[in-house]
UniProtKB/TrEMBL annotation:
Span of domain Histidine kinase/HSP90-like ATPase: 19-124
Pfam family, one: HATPase_c_2
Alphabetical UniProt keywords: ATP-binding, Kinase, Nucleotide-binding, Serine/threonine-protein kinase, Transferase
GO molecular function: ATP binding
Superkingdom of the organism of origin: Bacteria
Entry-linked SUPFAM superfamilies: ATPase domain of HSP90 chaperone/DNA topoisomerase II/histidine kinase
UniProt protein name: ATP-binding protein
Lineage summary: Bacteria, Bacillati, Actinomycetota, Actinomycetes, Kitasatosporales
Keyword Hydrolase: no
Organism annotation: Streptomyces violaceus (Streptomyces venezuelae)
InterPro entries in alphabetical order: Anti-sigma-factor_SerPK, HATPase_C_sf, HATPase_dom
């Protein structure tokens, strides 16, 4: 293989900040990953991250939006959701008890994904949450922890 050739494939999707767009994001992810054993985990992660963007940031306001990126290589599936910000606080992974009604979503994502990273957006005040699923890891195995 030539040194400048990549086996990575990358897709992007921008969605208005309406609740029904979460189902669109799930379908989009499922269509791209059709046949992958990690497709359903990826769909669940995209659903949670997209919902968080709409519910907890300016993405869910009248003119808001959120943006998805999906990168696939033979080793990893990386899913990123970038929100419009507006909260003044960064998303954080919390592990709540069973009685908690809120704050469990990113904790759930961190259990499903092999790695989760949260970065402030270079443009505006939003954040990007990226979850990675390693293709060679067995379910429930988290080698980076």
């Amino acid at each position: 293989m030539h040194e400048y050739t990549s086996t990575a494939r990358v897709w992007g999707l921008s969605c208005p900040g309406f609740p029904e767009e979460v189902s669109r994001a799930r379908r989009w992810t499922r269509d791209i990953l059709r046949g992958s054993p990690l497709a359903e985990d990826a769909v669940l992660i995209v659903s949670e991250l997209s919902s968080n963007a709409i519910l907890h940031t300016a993405s869910g306001q009248a003119s808001g939006s959120f943006h998805l990126a999906l990168a696939v290589t033979p080793q990893v599936i990386a899913l990123s959701v970038t929100d419009d910000g507006g909260t003044g606080t960064a998303p954080k992974i919390e592990h709540q008890d069973q009685e908690a009604e809120h704050g469990r979503g990113l904790g759930m994502v961190s259990v499903i994904a092999h790695r989760v990273a949260i970065h402030s957006s270079q443009v505006g005040l939003g954040y990007t949450v990226t979850a990675e699923l390693f293709t060679d890891a067995r379910r429930g195995e988290h080698p980076c922890r």
